TrEMBL record:
PANTHER family named in the record: ATP/GTP PHOSPHATASE (PTHR43581), EXCINUCLEASE ATPASE SUBUNIT (PTHR43581:SF2)
Endonuclease GajA/Old nuclease/RecF-like AAA domain residues: 284-371
Protein name, as recorded: Endonuclease GajA/Old nuclease/RecF-like AAA domain-containing protein
Species assigned in the record: Bacteroides intestinalis
Transmembrane parts of this sequence: none
InterPro entries: AAA_GajA/Old/RecF-like, Bact_Antivir_Def_Nuclease, P-loop_NTPase
One function term, GO molecular function aspect: ATP hydrolysis activity
Highest taxon listed in the record's lineage: Bacteria
Amino acid sequence: MSNYRYTLSDYHAIKEADIAINGITVLAGENGCGKSTLSRWLYYLINGFNRFDEFAYNDLLKQIQDCLRKPDRVRRDIVNRGDENINVTYSRLLETRVVYGDIESLFHESLDVLASFRKELVSYMNSGDEGNKNRILTYLAIPLDGGITLDDYCDDLENDVTAAYVNVLDDLKMHPVGRLQGYIYEYLIEEGIFDPPASIQLYEDQIPLLAERCFSMPYMLHRAIYIDTPMALAAEGSELNHWKELANMMLSSTGTNIPERNRLLLARIMRSINGKISVDKGWFKNEELHYHRADGLDITLASTATGIKSFAYLQRLLENGYLNEESLLLIDEPEAHLHPQWIVEFARLLVLLHKQVGLKIMVASHNPDMVSAIQSIARKEGVLQNTCFYQAERASEDSMQYVYKNLGSDISEIFKSFNIAISRIQDYGSTGLSE
């Protein structure tokens, strides 16, 4: 199994972070130290690597759709009104003919569509209404003086599609860093982020995956799942991509069979919440997540306590095949909505998911119960050597940036920061309001 190292520096609250991702990684530190920032950017980077082909396909599709926009509008005006496809756009036609992600098929089907348009356009221009023909030429930006022929116009369209196709093939072959950054930035803009870090890197077995001009695909890390709050499961119509992706994964399966080891973990989750989460039909026949309690209660997951939602995403992601040795689960402050007893049970599930499934996990936490439980249970389960704790410390006394200190499996320094809160409680409890 490959080991990973993740670095990010001089970005927002983070002065320097050099994080090992070999099993269970725990980031501790006060509010505003950049824990969530580290999680989010690792999520973007890993999924950027692994979805590069998908991004490239969508980029080509968009360029082809732009080329077909005007021809499509003209075609629907000039074809025979009895044509069964008169109201089917070229974009829709391609969707029905091409399997999503098949770049080769998309290219050739696009050329077929353009060939059909050329034939229909030439036929109409040889026999159609003169006034309408001039209107078409003006719309297509073809000079009325004949300086550019219909064939010239159609040739240019085919050349544009071919050039876009060749460029995408080059991207898939060369993996240019600039294109990866461009695709990730488009994704970020949808999430409301406009200032990416200048220094970020992911290493696989000490090999940097981001070079100056090109990038390499991670061999053993195929997916990152980021959960910043379980309330994402109650946010219908969210504009945040990582929330939408989480909802889709909870609704849809990878189609793989559930191994016996996973069944045992699922049974543990269901015992914890005294029920199970399933996909049911809603009022409008849409699929929605429901919580079925052991006593017969059946309510939507959105209506459950937030703590139930925390266990719900573990159940559904494991059940649907998304939690495995090729995945990284990133969770921000999972303890935030959990009773102390559930914090310990949740920590145990995380440790068992790593031990039995091989799942890599990075948790951002500032809860002593969560940190202590992960360490104790990891030691008991024999995976403490795969567990690494980090403490965010101010870069200097008056600095607002933090350096992440590698503590190995020792959590004593983390608890020193927790003890500050206890001292303040004692101080504030023994002084007057004005002191």
